[in-house]
Amino acid sequence: MSRPAVLQLESVDFVRGSRQILTDVNLRVEAGEHWALIGPNGAGKSTMLSMCGAVEHPTRGTVQVLGHTLGRVDVRELRHSIGHVNPRHPLRSPLPVRDVVLTGATGSIELVPRWTPDAATVARAEMLTEMLGLTRLTDHSWPTLSQGERGKVLIARALLPDPPLLLLDEPSTGLDVAARESFLETIDALHGAHPELATILVTHHLEELPESTSHAVLVRDGRILAHGRAHDVLTTDLVTRCFDHPIAIEHHDGRWLARAQRRTTGFLVGS
After folding, report:
1. Residues near 55 by Cβ (< 8 Å), separated by ≥ 6?
2. Terminus-to-terminus CA distance in the chain, angstroms?
3. Global pTM?
């Protein structure tokens, strides 16, 4: 039996100026599913994610987020129920970690003047900080954090309102290998601790997918090439078609590996 739909995109087109960005996009995301959104630069991934986050509205078609149809709902209120992790978080002031996490309650970049969190909000922020292994960094200021530490802080911030939907926009950007692996372990632990949480993770690199990835969607030229169970979608044939380049896909110990193939006389071999 299917779970409730967290996201439903039906026959979605999106036009910006005279350019068609998305064409006939159909996608359903249910509670507890963990989707990877993959495609080349300019494929339309960011536009799709912005609709999932109730930021952009479709030119044609219907987008339902958490049971609400875009265009018929106050998106400012709706966004409070959507967690968003963006490694390019535009914070400039030296807020300590505890305050960065608390900005998730107001959906603001800085602390809102004259706003005081209630005891329950403070307790949840402390719980999330501990769950994500950030307790020792509570008093550290934002500019002093590594990119990996910032990523974990932003997850805590996004989870503070206890959203049913979490969007991760290229969360491994700027991480070295060790920090990336630590971050992916955090994502896997998060999925295990919140079984009803639906997530969408945007990436160009299959090596950046956590083991708990359950579904995938491949986007090319503004259209969905394939979507469904990750093992059915992340195949050599489909990924090669998506990126218009011969790419061999392997899956070992719960993780994906992509490597380019070089053309020789009439057939492909691994590089």
Report:
1. 75, 79
2. 43
3. 0.90
Whether 119 is in a domain gets the answer no
Domain CATH for 217: 3.40.50.300
For the segment 16-27, what is each residue's pLDDT rounded down to a tens digit? 998 999 999 999
Mean pLDDT within 196-220:
95
Q: Answer whether 5's CB lies under 8 Å from 28's CB.
A: yes
CA gap 249, 259 in Å, rounded: 7
Sorted by sequence, the CB contacts under 8 Å of residue 92 that are 6+ apart come out as none
Q: Does residue 97 lie within any of the structural domains? A: no
Judge whether 228 lies within some domain.
yes
In terms of Cβ atoms closer than 10 Å to its own Cβ (0-12, 13-18, 19+), residue 118 is exposed
DSSP one-letter code for 207: G
Three-state secondary-structure class, residue 262 = strand
Is the CB of residue 244 less than 8 Å from the CB of residue 42?
A: no
> Which range of residues forms the domain containing residue 230?
5-90+162-270
Question: Is residue 254 included in any domain, yes or no?
Answer: yes
Contact 186, 220 (CB under 8 A): no
Phi, psi of 42 (to 5 degrees): 80, 5
